[in-house]
Amino acid sequence: MEDVKLPEEKGTRSLNFIEEIIEEDIRTGVNEGRVHTRFPPEPNGYLHIGHAKSICLNFGLANKYRGKTNLRFDDTNPVKEDVEYVDSIMEDVKWLGFDWEDRLFYASDYFEQLFEYAMILIKKEKAYVCDMTAEEISETRGTPTSPGKESPFRSRTVDENADLFTRMRNGEFPDGSRVLRARIDMASPNMHMRDPVLYRILHAWHHRTGDQWCIYPMYDFAHGQSDSIERITHSICTLEFEVHRPLYDWFIREIGIYAPRQIEFARLNVTYTVMSKRKLLELVQQGHVSGWDDPRMPTICGLRRRGFTPESIRTFAETIGVAKRENVIDVSLLEFCIREDLNRRANRVMAVLDPVKIILDNYPDGQVEELEAVNNPEDETRGKRMLPFSKTLFIERDDFMEDPPGKFFRLAPGREVRLKAAYIIRCESVVKEPETGKITEIHCTYDPLTKSGMPDSNRKVKGTLHWVSEKTAVEVEVRLYDRLFVKENPDDIEEDKSYKDYLNPDSLKILTAKVEPSVANAQVLEKYQFERTGYFSVDKDSTPGKLVFNRVVPLKDSWAKAEKVK
RNA sequence: UGACCCAUGGUGUAACGGCAGCACAAGAGAUUUUGGUUCUCUCGGUCCAGGUUCGAAUCCUGGUGGGUCAACCA
Fold first, then answer.
1. CA nearest A123: which of A202, A178, A180, A197?
2. Distance from C-alpha of A513 to C-alpha of A354, rounded to nearest angstrom
3. Residues 481-510, chain A, CB closer than 7 Å to nucleic strand B
4. Which residues lie below 8 Å from residue A505, measured CB to CB, with a gap of 6+?
5. How far in angstroms lies nucleotide B39's C1' from the CA of residue A378?
6. How far is the CA of A4 from the C1' of B18 (A)?
7. A204 in contact with nucleic chain B (CB within 7 A)
8. Above 90 in pLDDT, residue A563?
């Protein structure tokens, strides 16, 4: 029996507009029902959550329609590209859970073929070598509302063009001295059809072809033809390439090669998040973040380090949908996806981020009990562990209030709370620093009959608190993250504005916390839920002596919200 | 004063001429050894004006609003 995943999930699930196009193509026999997509990044930066949408779309479509997806590096501009980026991109796509199998390609693989295609256009009098400067070309292109002027070099003979183009390739001319242009229509209402540049001279070292070439094709001349060579059926790209589509089709038609179909969708925007590669690069270069994988970055490697799971990112990509309308997704949806995932896969442990000491006056000095605690109440199969309990403990400082408002469910003088997996305790008195009034010790008594699991332990109390035992607690570093920007759509920040005015000064808080001993040997990227305070992931900065935890995302906290409203 | 694209609750996304649905967010309740989770419920939408039709979110026309396009970037 086939056990390949079938296209549908639920029969009722509706199609997005790209799936409708594909299903229509399958129905009508276009491409013999074949579906072949590609993910085509330029290796000039790290992948971010926006790319994740495209990756999930392209690989997801191929998976759904039993097709294939290529990974292709669009490396036609050597001055911006680097192998560092190639490597990180492959790592990130793999981590997201996708496999291009043996179909790893580079646009630079096709440079020779592309040169031949250009020659075909020259022979058809559809391309010519132009000697104008970049400025002249720009000036004669016209504006969106007025036509351009034809280049004086537009009517060169086929032989002259072929000769000059060959000599361009042979390195006879300096950078910027000549370009190859398509001969289309300088009066076209579509600026991209006004004799676009096909090749420029660039004496630059290419990360794959070295110094083999000194002319490089432009995006428009490379992309569609690369799709065609790989026999891509559906070439999915973002909306800004919509106006390029007539040119994409023009090249395919004039050269006379296999015709893929370009389909555009709206790129992802997320509130309080920059998605522009240029801005992300600036954040790194200006030192606002520690690097591309800073856990506050929306890069795949940043999200990974922060503690996001590939599953949660795939769920997110699935949930946001695909359409042609400009969109800004609320960052809370991303947070929802990771909470939902981690809720069932992360073990819950006791961790106190801001400790205050509890002394159980009626608990025997020196006694240590091992108490049993479940690892994840959502998933019994995750088992149990033992927690050491003793006379002196730590609880969260804000889990105690000397003069609590009515709806405060936690510890206060004279009140009872349960210590999770342990006993019910009652606050008897408080010790403060005389000068500052800061609480240094809270004295309590415990009720020995209320140990978790005991027959008498079901007595109701308003609150349950997490705790750690003083002697056995492990000190760890905890890094709390908040949004990097205070501006809702930071991609809108104008060119010359400094980010400083828009950055959140409190986007990173570092503190020392006390955690239960069972996490002492946690591995990098291992996930936990610290009771009440959030989901955490072990950072790569951890050393054998000192664990470092990143807070992936805080838990929803309706108490904090209620407080804020007041 | 151009061409092209887009327009459904606060945010996204379905409905393909026939009951405007789903998710997030927000609010209420139940459960809860954390106020989390889980479950239930509520709130709230077809940009405007005409037209076609028995019937329009859907088709047509005209507005309005938003986006993209004038790199030898991708």
1. A180
2. 6
3. none
4. none
5. 14
6. 38
7. no
8. no
A174 touches strand B (CB under 7 A): no
ipTM: 0.96
Nearest nt to the CA of A330 via C1' is B11
**What is the phi/psi pair of residue A460, to 5°?**
-80, 130
Which residue in A293, A294, A351, A315 sits closest to A476, CA to CA? Answer: A351
Length of chain A: 566
Considering only CA atoms, which residue is closest to the C1' of nucleotide B33?
A420
Type of residue numbered A59: F
Specify the DSSP element, H or E, that contains A92. helix A83-95
**DSSP-assigned states of every residue in A418-469:** EETTS-EEEEEEEEE-TTT--EEEEEEEEEGGG-TTSTTTT---S-EE-EEE
- Name the residues of A annotated as catalytic: 42, 267, 277
Q: Is A333 helix (H, G, I), strand (E, B) or coil?
A: helix
Residue-wise pLDDT for A385-397, tens only, equals: 999 999 999 999 9
A272: DSSP letter: T
The tens digit of pLDDT for each residue in A145-185 reads 999 999 999 999 999 999 999 999 999 999 999 999 999 99
